[in-house]
Amino acid sequence: MARRRSLRLHPSDGDDDVVSDEENLNDLSFYDGPPWHPPNVICDNLNESGIRSNGHLVQQRDVENVVKLLEEDCTVPFIARYRKEQTSNMEAAVIREIKSSLEELKAVQEKTRFHLLKLGKEKKLSTDIREKLCNSYSMEQLEQLVAPFKSGSKTTLAERARKAGLEPAAEKILGDKGLFNVQDYIQSEGCTRTAKEVEEGVQHIVAEVISKDKATVDYLRSCVKEMSSQIFLCVSKASQARKKTKKDQQVDFEKFQSYMDKKHCINTVRPHQVLAINRGEELKALSVKVSLPDRLNERFIHWCKTKWCSNTQPNSYAARIICISVEDSYNRLMAPMIMREIRSKLNKTAEKASIEVFTQNLHRLLLTPPVKGRVILGIDPGFKNGCKLAVISATGEIVMTDVSYMHTGNRYLEKRRMTDLIRKFQCETIGIGNGTACRQTEEFISEVIRSNSFHPLHVQYCIVNEDGASIYSVSPEAEKEMPKLDPNIRSAVSIARRLQDPLAELVKIDPKHIGVGMYQHDVPERLLKAALGDVVEECVSFVGVDLNICSEVLLKWVSGISAGLAKKIIAHRQRVGAFTNRQVLLDVKGLGPKTFKQCAGFVRINPSSNNTAEQTTKDEVIVISTSEDEEDVKPLARKRGKTSAGPSKRRKKAAPPPPTEPEPLDATWIHPESYEETRKLLKMAFASGKDIGSESIKHKLDNLIKSRGKESLAESIGVGEPTLDLIINGLQQPRNYDIRVEFEKPLFKQEIITIEQIMPGMRLSGRVVNAVHFGVFVDVGLADHGLCHRNHMPHHILQGKVLGPGDKVEVVVTEKKLVNGRKWNISLRLVGLS
């Protein structure tokens, strides 16, 4: 076996040094990593899981390049946008999957080291065991290999038997070394036992040895995989004894009625069903058991008897003990272990699928196009405490706040107040939170609009997802942003800003509180937080932020920028003035070339935002230094005429500051590392920076591509075709281009329909508000959202599109049913995409 240096990228690394026969197996100072090749393992796992990149199988060379970039601390958005040549234009979602797999493999490496050291200290490490451990690339394999070396609980039957001195007897039976005599073990060290007690103790030890044997466990798992279609989750109503765990706890059996007294095949059970069953079991409403087929028992026991009795004489005493031990091992140890593994695998698959739904929905929600340039009225609905109102300007500033008692006060006076407010601030856009009293508030606004009270204003309203608004309104960030403002009013401000710029507002809220998906509280918080955090970073980075007007909360989500660094950037902007170009970022303390490389392409310097930049270059710059090392000297901007704090400190003239002239390319998503190539392209097209985003540059570039060809053109300027495409798109996009315009816009309405008007067969337009494994929930203007089941979503209509929040759809009502006299269930069938 070869020595390894690290979690290596190339199989040939370190193959020169071979372990000699005389080498001390317990000396692990040489171990630095496994022999397996990470990209190989990751690539095989991705392809086995059915994950595709651009519709094709993931190639190993692309995985190798992604792993190298991740090891260099490159972020997922940076790799996805600026390293397309190395990854064959791989999607960000696939790169995230590779990143997650790499982290798991690193965890396996650390665990392998731990087990090797532990076994080495215990003098239990052999060449064979060491090689098997180093070749394990999953936690499951590792745990299986070290299981025989783990001392069981002192309360297990096998440990009790060992403590009673019966282990030599078990070893003799398994090895069949001579004739076994029970009488030899009846009396030992002053302890007298019966022959039956000796027999049972030996059986328990042999049963445990069988259950920890790798070949035996592997065979059982292969049988389970082969017979998986015959394995079921048997779900039933929990017994009275189970539900009486807490006196005050009321178990709602009705919620889980559809799962009771049913068998769910482990091959076909849906992820959302697994999570629902788990929740029912946790709430003591359901009882769940894994049902294994009898054929599995018979086949496995027959195989084990053949294997473990091969060294014994047929019909001998030892053979009889082993046969009994095999059955005991299966029934008491191995079958329960397999059942736990099945449940664990189902849970992991369901959790992963649930997180995928969360990330897809959050991605759609964050990329909802902003409603720019409008004065917006945000309404946080309520009954007793009134509806909280907040008017924000076209730039997001709070103009007015108030409370309206439209549901409990004088309705006529409240309509007059609402009319005067809308007219006064020329507000044609209203955002209504989707919480309590949402539909009643919608009816009130719709009624005022129909009365033509706002004429000539064209007033429209939109239902806004307010999940997490109440949590944010009482957070320290909200207190800092809106001091001395009532938390309830802050919620109304947040609702208005969510409509005006969803991304900028939603990043202030913990992603798990945004409420996209189902069962967010049933998946591991650590995994959910990491996955949703990656999506937020990707969305913020790809949309880009204006460095001179963005908030600290938004900036910290940009690729490569941490929360601490975002605070320093904002402090630099407040102290020195607006950034004139991207290179000035390098003046921020703690932001070096490595971080600049990761974040530079995702921050913009729009000309409109730096017109008021202070002319700091006119001031004299003085450097106060107490060190002879000029690399540690940091420039401090000081006004002319000011002196240093103390006479003992030496003053120096600082080196000339970096150019502070605006760079036209800083307003695009083109990375500074490609500026030289971009200028070559502009020169070849007879264009300049002033032409960026205009119609003229589009024609010039089109003509250049037609005359030279894209491949030849890319070679001429020294980049790959993917980077050339990125440069061309960056040059052609209009000023202040926002990628969110390509997604579905919010759905604005002026009137609503009532549940009485809804009849089966009616065709309606709606907006997807949530996507789950079994379909999508659609807002068709009713108090309750309708469910369009996945079976009612024809493939010829979807044409490969995956529906998510914000998508507009055409549906037909198939069923309307009142549940428990309080909630309407509306079933829908998809008939078209808007």
Coarse morphology: globular
Q: Provide the spatial order of strands within the biggest beta sheet.
A: 10-9-8-11-12
Task: For the record, give the distance between the C-alpha atoms at the N and C termini, rounded to a whole number.
Answer: 61 Å
Query: What fraction of the residues are assigned to beta strands by DSSP?
Result: 5-15%
CATH superfamily of the largest domain: Tex N-terminal region-like
Largest sheet descriptor: 5 strands, mixed
CATH architecture descriptor name of the largest domain? Orthogonal Bundle
Query: So how many helices?
Result: 30
CATH topology type of the largest domain:
Tex N-terminal region-like
Question: What is the CATH class of the largest domain?
Answer: Mainly Alpha
How many structural domains in the coordinates?
6
Structural class comes to alpha+beta
- Return residue spans where pLDDT drops below 50 for at least 5 consecutive residues: 1-6, 10-23, 612-656
Summarize, please.
By secondary structure, the chain is α+β, with helices and mostly antiparallel strands. It is built from 30 helices and 22 strands.
